[in-house]
Amino acid sequence: MSEPARSTINTEEIPREVLDLAEAVGILPEEYRRTIEPPLGRVIDSNRRRRRILSLIQDALSQLRLDMKYLAFDLEATRRERDEFRRKLEETA
């Protein structure tokens, strides 16, 4: 790959196989490299988007789990309050 494109690749978010492919494309003659670099760039961009989406989904699931725990706690507290209120109501009746 050309120098500007190579510097924009974050190696932590791209699979090793794709980085190996980018390096192999980088040593190809210019005429072949010009043909292969655009689709390779799209593959890299697509991989980044998928990783960002996966991260957003994981964050959303974590938040949902936490919200569910809060809701379960609130439901149990509400049931205890209801039962206590009923008990007091029956005692006064």
Number of strands: 0
Please give the radius of gyration in angstroms.
28 Å
Structural class: mainly alpha
Tell me the β content: under 5%
Global shape = rod-shaped
**Kindly state the mean pLDDT as a whole number?**
89
Number of continuous helical runs = 3
Pick out the low-confidence regions. Answer: 1-7
Helix content: over 70%
SSE topology string: HHH
Give the domain tally.
Answer: 1
Biggest sheet record: none
- Quote the distance from N terminus to C terminus: 84 Å
Task: Give structural notes.
The protein has 93 residues and is mainly alpha-helical. It has one domain (3-92). Helix content is 85%, strand content 0%. The chain is built from three helices and no strands. It has helices at residues 3-7, 16-26, 30-92. It is rod-shaped. The termini are far apart. The relative contact order is 0.08.
Short structural summary:
The chain has 93 residues and is an all-alpha fold. It contains 3 helices and no strands.
Please tag this protein with its features.
mainly alpha; disordered N terminus; 3 helices; 93 residues
List strands and helices in order, with pairings.
Blueprint: H1 3-7, H2 16-26, H3 30-92
Helix pairs in contact: 2-3
